């Protein structure tokens, strides 16, 4: 079980107190749902093999943060129903840009991979992604594909720019 501490950082969304588990920081207000990785995570994780999402140091970081590994992700009816749709906000001007993605990993694991540029996908996410306001899942691959598209379309009303995979 991960050890949780009160963080001196404030939530990007609601500006309330945050809780830190390892390098993962989450809003103390459960209704907010905002999470982000500490800026130190990029410099502290030394990858044994470049571009490897199951690197020992990545897995230790995930365990310290209490993020479930792929085999522990809550499955619905069948093992194939383990996809998630997530949003990463770029910060900056109010609701300037965001990225909507789909993953078979836990969304916090995928977010860390983005930051470490492991199978990074959109390079802009690695460089400018500030926080994850929410994610949805688990769901089937087909549901995730449809939800990713509909969520990106919906968020275009709130954000100036939406990036999607």
Describe the structure.
There is one protein chain. The longest helix is centred in the C-terminal third of the chain and has 15 residues, at about 140-155. A hairpin with a 6-residue loop joins β1 and β2 (about 15-20). This protein has 5 helices and 8 strands, in the order ββββααββααβαβ. The chain has one domain. The strands form 2 sheets. The chain has a 4-stranded antiparallel sheet with strand order 1-2-3-4. It has a 4-stranded mixed sheet with strand order 7-5-6-8, with helices on both faces. It has helices spanning about 40-45, 55-65, 105-115, 125-130, 140-155; strands at about 5-10, 15-20, 25, 35, 85-90, 95-105, 130-140, 160-165. The mean pLDDT is about 85. It starts with a strand and ends with a strand. The protein is α+β, with helices and mostly antiparallel strands and about 160 residues long.
Mean pLDDT: 86
Shape estimate:
globular
Could you state the order of secondary-structure elements as H and E? Answer: EEEEHHEEHHEHE
Radius of gyration, rounded? Answer: 15 Å
Helix/strand-derived category reads alpha+beta
The total tally of domains equals 1
Outline the fold blueprint.
Layout: E1 4-10, E2 17-21, E3 24-27, E4 35-37, H1 41-44, H2 56-65, E5 83-89, E6 97-103, H3 107-115, H4 123-128, E7 131-139, H5 141-155, E8 161-164
Parallel strand pairs: 6-8
Antiparallel strand pairs: 1-2, 2-3, 3-4, 5-6, 5-7
